[in-house]
Amino acid sequence: MRRSGTWMTIWDDRILEVIREEGSGSPSELASTDVIRVSRQHVSRRLQKLADHQLLTHLGNGVYVITEEGKKYLDGELDADELEDASDNGEGTASA
Q1: What is the rounded distance in angstroms from the CA atom of residue 20 to the CA atom of residue 94?
Q2: 37 domain-assigned
Q3: What's the chain's Rg over C-alpha atoms?
Q4: Could you tell me where the beta strands, DSSP code E, fall in the chain?
């Protein structure tokens, strides 16, 4: 069973699932899927938040890939509330 973080939304699981299945994803690609029904801007904010918590890695040009931590979370092997927010300690960028 997945243990989502208090900082997560329902869309975060869908985003992670699609990126794991497809190998990578960008806000435009993800927002155009039938699985994710929110705006490109909302997807972009969620991607950054997932990257801030080390579940995704930003490759540049809006493209993200899943990390080992992201895979462990999806497999129910990681409690997302235990992940630190890199944006809180100056290592990441602020996000929604």
Answers
A1: 24
A2: yes
A3: 12
A4: 56-60, 63-66
pLDDT in tens, 7-48: 999 999 999 999 999 999 999 999 999 999 999 999 999 999
Distances (CA, A) of 84 to 18, 28, 73: 23, 27, 14
Question: C-alpha distances in angstroms, 65 versus 6, 31, 55, 60?
Answer: 22, 16, 9, 10
Per the structure, the complete domain to which residue 48 belongs is given by 10-81
Place of tokens 């794991």: 20
Using a pLDDT cut of 90, give the percent of the chain over it. 88
Global pTM reads 0.88
Question: Tell me, what CATH number does 55's domain have?
Answer: 1.10.10.10
In a domain, 67, yes or no: yes
Question: Cβ–Cβ contacts within 10 Å for residue 52, how many?
Answer: 22
